[in-house]
């Protein structure tokens, strides 16, 4: 009888140990899946500039479809909660600009305002420890938006710039790194922070494309001198060329700056075969760029990183690059 009892106790011990091990593995796996969140909204399908315009609702539709087929729906969320953001928009945009957009482009203004809501929600979740990083699948893009009372390069509000100010004002973080790898120069982001040493703006782009800005000699003014970094990359730029720039220029400059939060203007019109770009960067290239920026976030700011969709007009290519980017964002050890 004693041997039978000992054997039963031994088997129970093995069973409980196995259950404990696998439950822990499940918890760890679950935690890994919550490192990254993708935030989007159905409202982004409503904004239409004109028939056959490259900045169209299908940009988001293709991304969501790719999310479903890539097994990422568990980290995807349609965000539609009511949230007032105009006071934060005013940190960047003038009252006149806001009012003129509402009058001339009421739907576009409302959709762009919702993109701001998603970006600020993403920051809150990161700062509150809900997620390590977040990708905002939003449209229209924002990094060309000035205070002209109209759209500039398909942009109405500069979501990245507003988000940077929000982080500084609400969470009292002083140093923000903005990385912009869109094929087009983020002229609006440069404009709003050109004399600001608390924002390190790093942009790779084709300076001869729209809007014709972003020459390397534009390095900032006053106290902001040296905190604006423009890198011109010509047509046919490859993975290796853009990666070398990130390694040789961004990494050492960011390490000296020591950012407390990192924002990415994720423009995938720098991907091969884009309708409005001429680079040869493929999805593996974006994975490596993401890895570099993610490592900087890990070293300097406790992984705090928010990525926001900018350009990208080859529908299938834009979606593929987004998936590659998000998978690497969610790849934590």
User: Helix/strand/pairing class, anyone?
Assistant: alpha/beta
Average pLDDT confidence is 92
Distance between the termini: 48 Å
> CATH architecture of the largest domain, please?
3-Layer(aba) Sandwich
Give a description of the structure.
This protein has ten helices and eight strands. 47% of the residues are buried. It has two domains: 33 residues; 294 residues, Histone deacetylase domain (Arginase, Chain A, 3-Layer(aba) Sandwich). The chain is of the alpha/beta class and 333 residues long. The protein has an eight-stranded parallel beta sheet with strand order 2-1-3-8-7-4-5-6, sandwiched between helices. Helix 7 links the parallel strand 4 and strand 5. About 6% of the residues have low confidence.
